[in-house]
Write a structure and sequence with these properties.
Elements lengths: L4 H4 L18 H6 L3 E10 L2 E11 L4 E5 L6 H9 L6 E6 L2 E2 L10 E5 L10 H11 L4 H14 L15 H14 L4 E5 L7 H18 L2 E6 L2 H7 L2 E6 L2 E6 L1 H6 L4 H6 L4 E3 L1 H4 L9 E5 L5 E4 L11 E14 L2 E8 L2 E8 L12 E7 L4 E4 L1
Helix pairs in contact: 4-5, 4-6, 5-6, 6-7
The structure holds adenosine-5'-diphosphate (ADP) and magnesium ion.
The site of adenosine-5'-diphosphate has 11 residues, from strand 2 and helix 3.
Length: 373
């Protein structure tokens, strides 16, 4: 999948083109300018356009996630940045300089792939030594650096094992350690936790977060997992069909999605129509109203109104389905032609509704978001 993946690890000191100051050498300017920049980058594979005029800036030290469904162009963006593929049009800059002429091994980036790509015939120690060796670090120094890094990822006992003698999570820790050990300024992660089961994935998310806090590398992470994106990122780019749908902080994307696709991709969304909104609220053509399931309150159909009732929109419905998932309870409520999803935290003493129960749903008008359809 990544034909040249291994070559990236072999960046030699001689190819550290990118660390020099740009001509004119204004240090302050180079700190303020983005560390990574895509300028109108288009990538075509024959008749397939994988990316269309992608423009994107990444700050030094930022953790940026590219999120999107399969086939949306995420890996392509990373391959172009890593230098394994060349743009059809447009340019990519690192520290303000075009990297069009810089081969992958000269870009000084640490890379972690979903399939780990460790050298299977080398021990963990040797896997970690490799990037150091390629950069001309002396043997005596290498051992100390490897020991320290292994300790950092809690694998100090595993240096003499082969990758095949490690669990998936341990292998992924080695891959992270190997990407970081030569201290590259940029870290690229492609679905790094995709092969791990849920608990391990959460644990490794914590590990990646803490490595980012500690090492402060400019990180671009590619994933189709919304939870991973929300957990890890300073900023998320949501992609569809080779284009950016929206780019913002996790909070802003969740709270103010620009359109229906983003609303549905990040979390669950109730799209409302006039049957739920009543006649008094009109939605402009080309837009829809959206309310998040956790913003909907469910109560008995004949419950006494609460004090904030005048700020709420209220509808009656019937419980169609209910699911219990750990700390959350989910209801599906039929309201006219709509099925509205409600999520609430399970608290003790809280009333539980059953299928067929007549209920009232209400939500703050201020929590309704208008989206382009
Ligand atoms: P993602 O990582 O978001 O799943 P990719 O960047 O791998 O998406 O792919 C984007 C689009 O480009 C897809 O339609 C995919 O089939 C196509 N594509 C990717 N790599 C190649 C290739 N080497 N040759 C032809 N088409 C490709
Ligand atoms: Mg991919």
């Amino acid at each position: 999948m990544y034909p040249a993946a291994m070559r990236t690890l072999s960046a030699s000191a001689a190819t550290k083109v990118l660390e020099r100051e740009p001509p004119g050498g204004k240090v302050l300017e180079s700190i303020a300018s983005p560390q990574i920049e895509f300028r109108d980058v288009t990538k075509k594979y024959g008749a397939v356009t994988a990316l269309t005029e992608l423009s994107l800036s990444v700050r030094r030290g930022e953790f940026l996630t590219i999120l999107g469904p399969s086939g949306s162009g995420k890996t392509t963006a990373l391959m172009l940045l890593a230098g394994f593929e060349a743009p059809t049009n447009g340019d990519i800059l690192i520290s303000g300089r075009s990297v069009a002429a810089v081969p992958s091994y000269g870009r000084d980036q640490g890379i972690v792939f979903q399939n780990y790509a460790l050298f299977p015939h080398l021990t963990v120690n040797r896997n970690l030594e490799f990037p150091l060796e390629m950069r001309g670090v002396k043997a005596g120094q290498r051992i100390g650096l490897v020991e320290r890094m292994l300790k950092r990822v809690h694998l100090e006992e595993f240096g003499e094992r082969l990758p095949s003698q490690l669990s998936g999570g341990q292998q992924q820790r080695v891959a992270l350690a190997r990407a970081l050990i030569a201290d590259p300024p940029i870290l690229l992660l492609d679905e790094p936790l995709g092969a791990l089961d849920r608990n391990l994935r959460e644990q490794m998310q914590g590990e990646i977060k803490s490595l980012h806090r500690e090492f402060g590398k400019t990180t671009i992470c590619v994933t189709h997992d919304q939870e991973e994106a929300l957990t890890l990122s300073d900023r998320i780019i949501v992609m569809r069909g080779g284009r950016i749908e929206q780019a913002d902080t996790p909070e802003a994307l969740y709270d103010r999605p620009a359109n229906r696709f983003v609303a549905n991709f990040l979390g669950e969304a109730n799209i409302l129509d006039s049957s739920a909104l009543g006649e008094q609220q009109n939605v402009a053509p080309g837009t829809v109203s959206m309310i998040r399931p956790e913003r909907v309150r469910i109560s008995q159909a004949n419950a006494a109104p609460l004090s904030d009732q005048d700020q709420r929109h209220c509808v009656n419905g019937t419980v169609e389905d209910t699911t219990y998932a750990g700390p959350l309870r989910k209801y599906q409520v039929r309201v006219g032609s709509l099925s509205i999803i409600v999520r609430e935290h399970v608290a003790s003493g809280q009333q539980i509704f059953r299928i067929g129960d007549a209920v009232r749903l209400d939500w703050l008008r201020a929590d309704v978001r208008l989206l382009t359809a």
